User: What shape does this take?
Amino acid sequence: MARLLLVFPSTADDTEVPVNLGLLAHAVTSAIGVDAAITAAAQADIVMVDARADLAAAKALCALFRDHSESVPLLLLVPSSALGLIAPSWGMADFVLDSAQPAELDSRLRFLLTTVPISNTLTGGPVVIDEDAYTVMLDNKPLDLTYTEFELLKYLVLHPGRVLTREHLLSEVWGYDYFGGTRTVDVHIRRLRAKLGSEHDSCIGTVRNVGYRFTAK
Assistant: This one.
């Protein structure tokens, strides 16, 4: 059983414990705002930040909390509409949808409790990916990526020179339960290339009628 601290932004109107969380056999306490959270986190195994109502406030709360404490993992609770907006740079260890079933939520919590930190850094040409910090450096400068952009770039760098079809990328990065079409892969590839800039966008090559390939240059 985990000691879970549920943190609401100070702007939150609803501070009720989510039903799926209340069904689990974990000890749940709550706090409103970063000051109360920092004090209460000393007695918690995991801190869950509620981002359902105010995403911007939750982002600021994550940053402030992470500046004061790095020993307790942060789990972000988000609506599905926010998936394209959250980013690893927020400082959370993981995120979970507010619609997740109790079993999935429980597995995420238990994973955070049992994960042993391992240093993981990937390098592909000018791109350096720190999986632990969820950061990407391009020519020693940080790239501001969303969560999905980070995962997509990481997967490409993990498979240099390999041609990856849109269908394969969709299943590996977005997951088998994603209902969107393969065009979303093209959209995210364009965004990644734009962020890599004209000097490095050719690292992600297009293989006509097949998919994409990462080449370190």
